[in-house]
Design a protein that fits this description.
NADH Oxidase; globular; oxidoreductase activity; 11% strand; 11 helices; Nitroreductase-like; Flavin_OxRdtase_Frp; alpha+beta; four-stranded antiparallel sheet; 245 residues; 2 domains
Amino acid sequence: MTSVLNLLSAHRSIRKFTAKSVDETLLTSLISAAQCTSTSHHVQAYTIIQVTDADTRQKIADMAGPQPWVAQAPVFLVFCADLTRLVHACRRHNAAPETGWAEQLLVATVDTALMAQSLMLGAESVGIGGVFIGGIRNDPDLVSDLLHIPEHAYPVFGMCLGYPDDDPAPKPRLPVGAVFHKDRFPSAMEQKPLTDYDQKIQTYYEKRSPTLKDRTWTRQMADFTGQVIRPHMKAFLEKKGFFRQ
């Protein structure tokens, strides 16, 4: 296995960090390298905001969970899907921008996610760990107000980065056979039973804490799918200039 494959296989979320700061030059280098990630039509539809103000970070940490590591991590970034530069480019060339289409929302969100994953992998390659913070979408209006995020941009997720003060085991993923198929999507009858994977996940959580009972993957997914998650997002995205069409 190459070092990249080893890094990918060893990924785990880090929520406890040492007091060691992340050098600003290193952070800039990691972002610069991550910018080389694939991007649809060379749009590069993302903007990253490093949040350094302690009060702002605490407000986001409280709203997102609470997730105290948002306030405690040496680095906290907010990744925005951003079409503002495209609107500016149209105006610069006296072209009327077509905005609000679902495809634009997809392009910007995918670009942002791909770039952020590359940044995480680059950080892990130099001994930094981190965790994605989807909880900022609990109140995207608050995040937009705090960080002055304009129309045609929206906060997709946050990311904590720092030097790990914890060494959790990687969480087992679904077997490859459950997610990789040839020529066509599998029928329901062809989906392999998840009993073995459920047991792996249960064992993983029991090793983390004996109080974590009934934490199989299917139990968690049933709980997740059985509730409405962030129903405000559609109206928020429409207000931001996305998803109007």
